[in-house]
Specification:
Its EC number is 7.1.1.-. The chain is α/β, with parallel strands linked by helices. It has five helices and four strands.
Length: 166
């Protein structure tokens, strides 16, 4: 976050005044309190639930509030295989989320269709349905990988001008 410290004109003014833009402050707050929607499609959802458990504890980063409704969430973690029958529902959930909203594609099935990519009923990547901000590769990715993806998204939200390599 870009913070500018100015020398006070009056020595009576305390030195703990920080000047910044409203957008920078809002992005800083948003990056430290993602509210993911509870949404798992396959095996990767088990690893996503494990990341919320006591061993990995994503609560220490402020991301523990899994919301039951997309209208209360700002992050969708697509964890697992997206089928053609499920694709319109994924799109609808994304559209119901309030802005600003972000998407993490978790696992090789969500990223590219995984081992089922040649199937007639599997979508070859969730990025064909909704815009994806961060990709977390693996089959199934470990909870540490999801935490790494959340931290990468945090950097992207704090400084939106920096493009991350997908």
């Amino acid at each position: 976050m870009a913070v500018t410290r100015l020398k006070p004109a009056d020595p009576q003014i305390p030195d703990n005044i920080i000047l910044s833009t409203v957008d920078a402050m809002l992005n800083y707050c948003r990056a430290h309190s993602f509210w993911p929607v509870t949404f798992g499609l396959a095996c990767c959802a088990i690893e996503m639930m494990a990341a919320g458990g006591a061993r990995y504890d994503i609560a220490r980063f402020g991301y523990e509030v899994f919301r039951p409704s997309p209208r209360q969430a700002d992050l969708m973690i697509v964890a697992g295989t997206v089928t053609r029958k499920m694709a319109p529902l994924v799109r609808r959930l994304y559209e119901q989320m309030p802005a600003p909203k972000w998407v993490i594609a978790m696992g090789s099935c969500a990223i590219s269709g995984g081992p089922f990519v040649d199937s007639y009923n599997v979508v070859p990547g969730v990025d064909t349905i909704v815009p994806v901000d961060v990709y977390v590769p693996g089959c199934a990715p470990r909870p540490e990988a999801l935490i790494n993806g959340l931290l990468a998204l945090k950097k992207k939200v704090i400084n939106p001008k920096v493009a991350l390599v997908k």
